[in-house]
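Entry for the shared binder. Reason: the reviewer on the internal report wants the predicted structure included alongside the sequence.
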Amino acid sequence: MNTDSKNNGGFRLLRATLLLLALCASAAWAQQKPAAKAAKAAEPPRVFMAINEGGAANADAAETLFKFQELTQVIEKEMRATLVVVAVRDRNKLKASLKKHEYALLLARPNDLPAEAIRDFGYRPVVMAKEPSQAMFIVHKNSPIRTIKDVKGKTILTPDAYSNIWRIANAMLRDAGINMAGEKVRAMRDQAAIGWSMENEFFEVAVVNSISGVGRSWEKNGHRVIARSQELPNMPMIASPQVTEAQFAAVRDAMVALTQSDGGRVALKKIGLTGFQETSPKAFLDFLKWIGDLEISH
């Protein structure tokens, strides 16, 4: 046999071997694809939850996520999904996200955005804190101001303009015959800073949330509250239409039952609440009707 015949035979053998290896690899890949698809299908779905503490809590995103860690673990278990938790402070961005149903769940201290999401975007209230919140008009212990009607013409310090407490203060003044737009009002984001400003008498009147640190300690420190709003929903949790009935019921029941276990009580203490209770859309719709629609002037 000449050299060319040997070379041709070797080449054919090599080609056959490579072809066989390619066929084996293709078969193995074909077997792996269904297994990979099955593994992916077995992974729990990812759902997004937003937490918004507003101006009553002076905390950054990392502090917020740490504070709510145990609570969100309970929620994740009941949702049977991988819960991606996002701390959101910007109310405009949060509202835009709620409109697009980017968050399956929202737990928020400000009550106006959850209320609007219930009214306008198809969200449902799951629970709210047992302790209600109130907007409080506060004055220094040396102030001659006695009632909300005496506020007219005075310097007023409020939380951020268009925030929920600002809107409640606007409604309270309106009911007292005072147009807040015509008063000397300054806004400040941090309610602890509002308290400090009032302690040092830089303003004559201020408005704070009753469940903030300032709101809880103001009268204990010898100062006065001249007006309180009606009791309002506090720290509501709302669910988007993508949350199933089974998930909704499981999360609601678990949140209400937190006070019945040591772990649940630890989670509640960490976020400064005594417990959650069931609620209905009516409480939020009535609240929005009272404060009125937000009209932002440019």
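Summary line for the report: The first helix runs from residue 3 to 42.
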